[in-house]
Amino acid sequence: MNYEERAERFIAALRRVREDRGRMADLRCGLKDTTQTRAFATLAGCGGRVDSVIDLTVAALYALHPKESADRNLGTTWRRLRFAAYGASDERNSLDVRFSRLLACRTAEQLCERLLPFVTFAKSHEAGINYVALHTDLSRWDWSDRARLDWAREYWQAREDEGEPTTPAETQSAT
Question: SS in 3 state form for the chain?
């Protein structure tokens, strides 16, 4: 099974428990070191590995903000949020700096530690996340620059090439 297939199965399992408030609360406990053991049973029940910081992080973030998007990756989502906040301005701003900090992470573990504010910001602006792409990208982060370069391309080049971004294709997960 490749990374994309595993991510699809994992996120599909998370979608099935989405309406179970208790399980979602348990998964959110994965965001803190002191409570993350509460997430293990539900994580394992969804096909996640309890020894995987990627599975734990993605499940916890999904439980925090289960709104999904068809965006290509986090670069696309962050570009849409930037445009909503700053319009077509080319002036460097706080979102550019925050996004650059994500790209500077050299390991998936470092990146996982920095994703909570991003997802919280997306939630506050009712922007969905492509969790399948996020899980796939995190799985490749340590050994390939592909995800990092794709995110950067979507954030900076797509904005230059396309001008004003189109409205994001937001979808609510079916249970």
Answer: CCHHHHHHHHHHHHHHCCCCHHHHHHHHHHHCCCCHHHHHHHHHHCCCCCCCHHHHHHHHHHHHCCCEECCCCHHHHHHHHHHHHHCCCCCCCHHHHHHHHHHCCCCHHHHHHHHHHHHHHHHHCCCCECHHHHHHHHHHCCCCCHHHHHHHHHHHHHHHHHCCCCCCCEECCCC
